[in-house]
Design brief:
GO terms for molecular function: fucose binding; metal ion binding. By secondary structure, the chain is an alpha+beta fold. The chain has two domains: about 50 residues; about 140 residues, no CATH class. It is built from two helices and six strands. Strands 1, 2, 3, 4, 5 and 6 form a six-stranded antiparallel sheet that branches.
């Protein structure tokens, strides 16, 4: 997967390659054959689409003490989906509140739709976007113990995300979030887990 810097470098390289291959009117160099022009144009379109989905990671959560809320800067990463995933086997993902902020100080997640990889009891995904920072387990989400558990909010539109805040559970197991990744992007491939990482 690519970091934000890696994605920017790839985009820059792509722009330079396009500048080298393109004619002033935006048509591709025909390389002495008419079919090549179409082929190069198809390559450009495919690469542009591919670059939009290069995974970026906002952050890796090292540790959030129980009952605390921590903010993570995402440097205006663009995307419709915000995903929290814990890589590894025999993991349980628990979130008490997830807030997503764009250019204004409005929590975009409040109008979103949340889902998660599995459900433990009544700890549904929407508990993390209800605007309630209660840290007792009844107000939090929780997956079953599984490999790579994830939680995702669909913001219902593409936004530039400045920051994401996570509120951790207080009454048990705050270490469960250690190593979790926050990813932002537009892809639902692998349930959004392939998004910015």
């Amino acid at each position: 997967m690519f970091t934000a810097l890696g994605k920017k470098l790839l985009r820059s390289l792509f722009v330079h390659v396009l500048g080298f291959l393109s004619l002033p009117e935006g048509r591709m160099v025909n390389m002495e054959c008419p079919a090549c022009e179409v082929s190069h144009l198809m390559f450009v379109v495919r690469v542009k689409r591919w670059l939009e989905y290069i995974p970026l990671r906002c952050t890796v959560i090292s540790h959030i003490p129980g009952g605390e809320t921590h903010y993570f800067q995402c440097n205006e990463m663009e995307g419709r989906y915000v995903v929290v995933v814990i890589p590894g086997s025999a993991k349980i993902l628990t979130l008490c509140e997830v807030e997503v902020y764009g250019s204004r100080s409005v929590n975009l997640a409040l109008k979103g739709v949340a889902v998660q990889s599995s459900l433990q009891g009544s700890y549904i995904a929407s508990h993390a976007i209800d605007g309630n920072r209660q840290t007792f387990h009844l107000h939090c989400t929780q997956t079953e113990e599984e490999t790579n558990p994830w939680w995702r909010v669909d913001l219902r539109n593409v936004y530039r995300v400045r920051s994401v805040s996570i509120t951790n559970r207080e009454d048990c197991c705050p270490e469960r979030l250690d190593g979790a990744e926050i990813r932002i992007g537009n892809s639902l491939e692998n349930n959004g887990v392939m998004n910015p990482r």
